[in-house]
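Same chain as my last thread, 112 residues:
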Amino acid sequence: MSKPGFLLLLALAVSGCAALESPGSPSPEPTPPTASEPREPRENCDWQSTRGIAQLLEWMNGSARFEFFPGEQLIVAPGRSGWQEGDEFKAELREAPQAGCDPQLIIIDPLE
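reply #2:
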């Protein structure tokens, strides 16, 4: 038998034996997912967007409460420092009919 053929046969034999487990050895437990691994979204949201105007009504514990037109919907969303009650913004409201998909208000630009 040639030397390369013998080495290949030897490598296959050794690797094949390494894959076999003895009957008395416990199988390793699967590792639980860590916090850094991304999770699948709970639901897929079928977003529908409406462009309109959002007026800042009040500040609430670091968040801002807006009234979105059309529809006169009240939405709580993150705000920025420097914005004042009564300010108006071009905005987009994203909504989905599925449960668990909270509406999202996206502020585009301030109205001047």
